[in-house]
Amino acid sequence: MTHPTDSYHPPISGLAHCRSWGRRLLPRSLALAAALVGLQGLTMLPNVPRGIMTSEAVAAPLNAVDSPPQVAQWIENEIYALRQSQRRWIEIDLTGQRLIAWEGDYPVYAVFVSTGTYATPTPTGVYEIYVKYEQAPMSGPGYHVPDVPYVMYYDGNYGIHGAYWHSNFGTPMSHGCTNVAPDHAAWLYSWASVGTPVVVRY
Hints:
Blueprint: H1 28-37, H2 55-58, H3 69-84, E1 88-93, E2 98-103, E3 106-112, E4 125-128, E5 131-140, E6 143-155, E7 158-162, E8 178-180, H4 182-191, E9 197-201
Parallel strand pairs: 1-9, 7-8
Antiparallel strand pairs: 1-2, 2-3, 4-9, 5-6, 6-7
């Protein structure tokens, strides 16, 4: 395990983050239409500051393909309800290895992540963050990491947290948690609160 001396991680090639500063880049109707179409690649607008993307760039497809049909339908129903609300919620797309932070039906932040491997999968479902730690130790068979940053648990020992020991985001390689680059994890940690819904799906 390597420990970089610098905690800065440059934006991951192919996917940056999107922040909401009290204005929408697209009307809600276009943002929802983009979400239904799915991720087709990044779309940068010439007048938009670097690092801010249109809704098409961060919207994820709504089809759950690898879950049992009744579970997939239940997750889709929950996503629909969350999109109708104005609540903040987090979507973890296991197929695309993406995490998207939403406010109702509007995506505000998106990053590549690393979820569980085939041997240690990240379970699908709809959860809520139940506890947050700015720093916490994590250990299991074959590993011990003393100072994991920005930990947000949502299901038993499964959570979202910063990972300074690798930079292979976009590739499944965790023990079941969702690994995020520390700078992105810091943003998510400050944005989400206990009770924020977390949807994990294919």
